[in-house]
Amino acid sequence: MRKQEYAIVDIETTGGNASHSRITEIAIIIHDGSTVLERYETLVNPEKDIPPSIFGLTGINNEMVAHAPIFDDISEKVMEMLTDRIFVAHNVNFDYSFVHHQLAQAGLKWTAKKLCTVRAARKIKPGLGSYSLGNLCNSLNIGLENRHRAGGDADATAQLFSLLREWDDEGVIDQMIKKTAQDQRLPPNLPQEDFNALPEKPGVYYFYNQAKKVIYVGKAVNLKKRVTSHFTGNNINQQRQHFLRDIYGISFEVCATELMALLLECTEIKKLWPTYNRALKRFEAKFGIYQYEARNGYKYLAIGKVSKFQICIHEFNSLHTGINLLRSLAEQFEIDHRFCKYSRPEEGDFFYTPEVKELPDPLLHNEQVDNAIDFLLHNRPSFAIIDKGRSADERSCIWIENGHFHGMGYIPRDTAIHDPEDVKSYVTLYKSNQYIEQLIFAYAEKYPGKVFFNKHFTK
């Protein structure tokens, strides 16, 4: 039986992700765990221009690769050297994604077990200031020539690998290369202990970059399972590759229910506006209902786009929702439809059609508009949702005030709740938005038995 061998790989590319970029140089060093057995290195014609920023980093330009082989021409050689060997690289998922993608484009199906020397170094030599290849070479007295070239970086990685094997008294590397090794799927800069601390409970998790700034907020029914899902698979799109490289830490907050996790996620995204959150940013209110008075003394209600410089009475995610509410208010308070605008008017705009019935009495009309606004602001339901807690010793509570999310928190199970003030004293205040309110009202309609202090939701 042949001794286990390793293919230590480094590549240079035209960019940061395999789906839109191409390999410009590749070096493969075959290693048996202690000795280098074989070495292969070549420039590769990427069949596309090399950006100036990449030339500045690597020194590889279009002229240098113009007469180099394209990847298809070397694919069988690369496949031969990688087959039945452990794929080793510094930040292994980056190199693996490119090689896997370009072999597949050449019609070759290949997979391999992987070993990341960043993660191995973190485990075997903990406490170093940085685990970038350049800084590790400085810390561990490894010679590094031709930095940011495939051959130079591969040689340095091979030396690092030999040292790690020598220092590995606890069999860390053998554990890491097992197919089921969990940490092999983790981003290279994420400490294993951050991932290990995640519980299998509902809650909200936060990803941090190197500057300890939150770059992503997510909610989960099972925190451990959900975070793991970010790191599995071989997705090569640009956003995911950049996302994984930017993750340097994780924190979390356990929530009693999925609803509370959803609410916390929404408010945290609104507050922190993380770089990689996109989905919930769509739910920022885009339209509002406005009231204005024309020069003739009549008050109007109008739907328009939300502006930083104008205060609206109520906000909506969609124009359709706003129009429906305005129509409902006009019918409930008998407001003449001619004074309801379904797009934001210019100041002083006045709608009047002479051939229709005469205009209503201005005092009565304005009173009807004021009543509609007062109803919208002050007569929406207030209620509590009381649910299970994070443990058997508590209950969770969510409070809605005049139709707006007021806050949420936890109440000791042995505490008696007699009125709304008892609930409100236990909640942490949060900002509301229409998306959050939709979530809460839908939940209250579905589970009326968990709603207290409001007759709208019958038990």
UniProtKB/TrEMBL annotation:
InterPro entries for the chain = DnaQ (IPR006054), GIY-YIG_endonuc (IPR000305), GIY-YIG_endonuc_sf (IPR035901), GIY-YIG_UvrC_Cho (IPR047296), Ribonucl_H (IPR013520), RNaseH-like_sf (IPR012337), RNaseH_sf (IPR036397)
* UniProt KW Membrane keyword: no
For this UniProt record, give its keywords in alphabetical order, as a comma-separated list: Exonuclease, Hydrolase, Nuclease
Q: Where is the GIY-YIG domain?
A: 200-278
GO MF terms held by the record: exonuclease activity
CDD domains the UniProt entry points to: DEDDh (cd06127), GIY-YIG_UvrC_Cho (cd10434)
Matching SUPFAM superfamilies, A to Z?
GIY-YIG endonuclease, Ribonuclease H-like
UniProt keyword Nucleotidyltransferase, yes or no: no
The name this protein goes by in its record:
Exonuclease domain-containing protein
